[in-house]
Amino acid sequence: MTMEAPRMQIDTDAGGATYLYVCEHGARISWLTEAMSHYAAIVPVSYKVAPIEERITKLQPQAIFLDFSGEYAEKASELAHRLRRDWPEILLLGTGVASHVPTALQALRAGVHDFVDVDGPVETALETLHALFERHDGAHRRNRGRTIALLGARAGLGVTTLACNLAVMLQDMRMAAMRPASPPSRPAAAPRQGVALLDLGLPPRDGLLYLDIASEFSFVEGAHNLRRLDQTLIQTALAHHASGVALLPLPASLAQIREISHAESAALIRRLADFFEFQVADLGGFSSIEFVAQATRDADRAWVVCDQSVGGIVSTAQLLRDLRERGVDMQSLGLIVNRYDAAVNLTPRDIAERLGLPLVHVLPARATALLGAGARGELIAHSARSDPYVQAVGAIARGLVLRAGETEAEREDRRNWGEFMSALMGKFKG
């Protein structure tokens, strides 16, 4: 059986996927390794829990194959139950000979997502994995929240101020939308998801200062507790602003960042999207370009914040070069020009053209108003709702809320309409 080339391309987050294979049968390991040779690296591992967990933490695999053959069936079943409990985001596939019905049944009863027949053709294994990723990715995208990554080439470009105000305004809009016009006949269940602010910018923990809250639980601790992350832990461990925004900051000692890998950091952000309708990731000035690149690829929206200063533009251009070298699609980025002053002879369009990014938003220069709100220990989004800066950030938040409420059909209609208008404008210009 021959597959068409496009269907054989398995979508992975990082381009070069790694899958674990819990198996002690040399011929089967060779068969699966050969089957996946062009698409992923297969890492064999024994049935012992400790080595498996060590490999998961280090390699962050998207899928784990479990061999249910013969004497290993019971061990594979026990492992499948444990992996489903501790690593629910990882896909599980059983392997064995499909013609031996008890093996396939035991694998499916253990909760694997699909079964691969190692006695069948290689193409069938690829089809199975491809279909599984399509089903999983489609369901996951429908159920997970949206991540907005705000990038800044260096500290001082106003990324944290924007992130804090945007997160609070998104939360306010979400709560207003959920508030019934008339009192319900019985108390409604508490909303499962809200808005999270990932305070990962530099200087560290400025988001805590702007929101005037304290947090003992850090991003590093979140990565260490990835397996334990559930709604209860989020409610009890994460700091919460009066608006309801949850906050996860960098640790007080930045040296602790070395305790977790870029893969673990990215895995935590992806996992948090399962609990929050929106998460705003403040990455302004973050020093690890590898992590910024991965977070940008994973985000639903990725916006680069820059001001009119020469230093800001030069630093941003370097950031974009670094991201491009790491495989980030520049078409996925948008530009937010911050602190725009019409008296400066450099327009937002000029900056966008110099950086080669589409201009998505412009925020006015309101230094005095922002400093005044901060001096009072207030967030300008709550203390001066009519301020031009607040109005501009509010427009960003409304756009995100409207997009989040779209159905798949509406989103497809919008894409088609955008393509039609682009083609039409191209004809007028051409």
What does the average pLDDT come to?
Answer: 83
CATH architecture tag of the largest domain: 3-Layer(aba) Sandwich
Structural class: alpha/beta
The largest sheet is: 8 strands, mixed
Order of helices and strands: EHEHEHEHEHEHEHHHEEHEHEHEHEHHHH
What do these coordinates show?
- The structure is a single chain.
- This protein has 430 residues and is an alpha/beta fold.
- The chain has two domains: 5-142, Rossmann fold (3-Layer(aba) Sandwich), CATH 3.40.50.2300; 144-178 and 192-402, Rossmann fold (3-Layer(aba) Sandwich), CATH 3.40.50.300.
- The chain is 47% helix and 17% strand.
- The chain contains 17 helices and 13 strands.
- The chain has helices at residues 26-35, 49-59, 73-86, 101-109, 122-143, 159-178, 206-211, 219-224, 231-237, 262-272, 289-298, 310-325, 348-355, 367-375, 380-383, 388-404, 408-429; strands at residues 17-22, 40-45, 63-67, 91-96, 114-117, 146-152, 195-199, 239-240, 246-249, 278-284, 301-306, 333-340, 359-364.
- The strands form two sheets. The chain has an eight-stranded mixed beta sheet, sandwiched between helices.
- α1 (26-35) crosses α5, α6 (159-178) crosses α16 and α10 runs parallel beside α11.
- The chain is elongated.
- The two termini are 47 Å apart.
- Mean pLDDT is 83; it is low at 1-15, 181-192, 406-411 and 417-430.
In short:
This protein is of the alpha/beta class and 430 residues long. It has 2 domains: 138 residues, Response regulator (Rossmann fold), CATH 3.40.50; 246 residues, 3-Layer(aba) Sandwich (Rossmann fold). The chain is built from 17 helices and 13 strands.
